[in-house]
Amino acid sequence: MAPRSYGAQLRHLAETFGDGVALTFLPTEGEPRDVSWRELDRRSNQVARLLQSRGVRQGTFVAIGLRNSPEHYFTTYAVWKLGATPTPIRWDLPEWELERLLAVIEPSAVVGDLVTNASTVTAAEIEASDSLPDDGLPDAVAEPARAIATSGSTGSPKLVVFVDPGYAEEGIDARPDLTDLSSRPTQIVLSPLYHTNGFRGYFGLLAGQRLIVMERFDAARAVDAIERYHVNFMVAVPTMLQRIARLPGIDDRDLSSLENVLYGAAPLPEWAARKWFQMIPPERFIIQYGGTEQFGRTACTGVDRLRRPGTVGRPVGCDIKILAPDGTELPQGEVGEIWLRRHDGLRLTRYRGAPQAPRTEDDFTTFGDMGHFDAEGYLYVDDRRSDMIISGGANVFPAEVEAALSSHPDVADVVVVGVQDPEWGRRVHAIVQLTPAASVDGEDLRGYARQRLAPYKVPKGIQIVDALPRTPAGKINRLAVAAAYADVPDASAAN
Predict the structure, then answer these.
(1) Which helix (H) or strand (E) holds 191?
(2) Which of 216, 243, 270 is the last residue of a domain?
(3) Shared-domain flag, residues 78 and 137
(4) For the chain: N or C, fewer Cβ within 10 A?
(5) Angle, helix 270-279 to helix 238-245, in steps of 10 degrees
(6) What one-character-per-residue DSSP string does 360-425 give?
(7) What element of type H or E holds 13?
(8) What angle do CA 144, 188, 129 make, to 5 degrees?
(9) 263 three-class SS
(10) 475-495: pLDDT as tens digits
(11) 79: nearest Cα among 103, 113, 55
(12) Burial 104-132 (b: 16+ CB within 10 A, else e)
């Protein structure tokens, strides 16, 4: 088939499926809401006319600060239909942080109920746009097709801009069975739409998938949805996988419809991985290492992970090497920085608002993660370089300590940071959220850690808190957490 713009592809899907359900929205409160393919196409035409009246044109960027909702989908497709670039952002950013981010995006419009001096289109105006003409617009192609806002490990805002134009892949035309509504794959969207994992659901829609979209992740409701809607595909971050694995009665739930569970983004504790391999066949559990920037990736299944605990797989379509700080390539088993190079030589993304990623003379680049290879070429990610704690001259990777503590049945969540120490330089400090029925304290958990970690890796202090400040995407700002606990004087004060 000839390439179709995203807008033309949506129109094609609306003509093919009509009143069939394109997405089902699961609000935090209230009843599910079905949106048909015809409604998605019609409403995005109307929102496009609203945005057009506010100055959105081909080649401009549009910041979308809406919660997970049908309106987010209407708006994003509207932006594409105008040939503009959608840039989803958090809807709850404080004003000072929002203005820093918008200075990088330079949007022609900001959509959402955000406090800003920029030209805004409110959520109420998006809803009210259903009175506007809903006929089709002249075809336009967005180039670049999208941008994702991130602060990385530095805390400074930047955009990852995808330089490719907005053309749909072959989708339903390549798989005739997908024209049958009863046989279409169903994907559940657990992450916020400003996160890469959430946003990828858009491309599922463009390929004819049905989406089940949660307003906000909740482990129990996610499992209910998987059973009710016979979900085939799910992308999740480690925090989500752990919370589902900890659900009471999870062994009695029916997850048999899941054909693929895709995981990446951060190390997954081994106890959680093995629990999932009991819940679904391990060959259906797909582990990936890569990044939004698409420098390269690795992949494997749960079958490989069972044989090689902790691995994220072998390189796929790329070369990977492990380098020491001086640029020397390290042998198998030694931990260094992970550098990647795509076989096709393409650079699919670029940064906006930050220097481009570093590159070696032979065109390898890095996400800044630390890892090592085993004898068979399987990669293991130890942690981010920026997260590593140097305590008394020894390197401690927070992910390893977090994995040990999170395996305790009374631990609901944990983050490990390095705090200033006059003797050690930095010492290992853990902040822990317990399960509701837990009866342990910090010293109990230190004893548990001693059974699983080398002495220098055991947290000097463990702070018990009601909740950890994770984002809806499951991320946590380690720099902010470390700063908040920088003045904790010693283990006795921390427990």
Answers:
(1) none
(2) 216
(3) yes
(4) N
(5) 60
(6) -TTS-B--SEEEEE-TTS-EEEEEEGGG-EEETTEEE-HHHHHHHHHTSTTEEEEEEEEEEETTTE
(7) helix 6-17
(8) 60
(9) strand
(10) 777 777 777 776 665 543 444
(11) 55
(12) bbebbbbbbebebebebbebeebeebeee
What does the alpha-carbon distance between residue 161 and residue 144 come to, in Å, rounded to a whole number? 7
Beta-bridge partners for 234? 188, 261
Coil, helix or strand for 321?
strand
Tokens 């698409």 — which residue? 294
| 201 class by beta-carbon count within 10 Å (0-12 exposed, 13-18 middle, 19+ buried) | buried
Q: Does 233 fall in a domain?
A: no
* Same domain, residue pair 12 and 137: yes
The reply to whether omega before 282 is within 30° of 0 (cis) is: no
- Looking at the structure, do residues 37 and 59 belong to the same domain, yes or no? yes
Per-residue tokens: 266: 């951060």
Question: Tell me: the pLDDT tens digits for 274-327?
Answer: 999 999 999 999 999 988 888 999 999 999 999 999 899 999 999 999 999 899
* Exposure string for 463-482, b = 16+ CB within 10 A, e = fewer: bbeeeeeeebbbbbbbeebb
Note the pTM of the prediction, 2 decimals.
Answer: 0.82
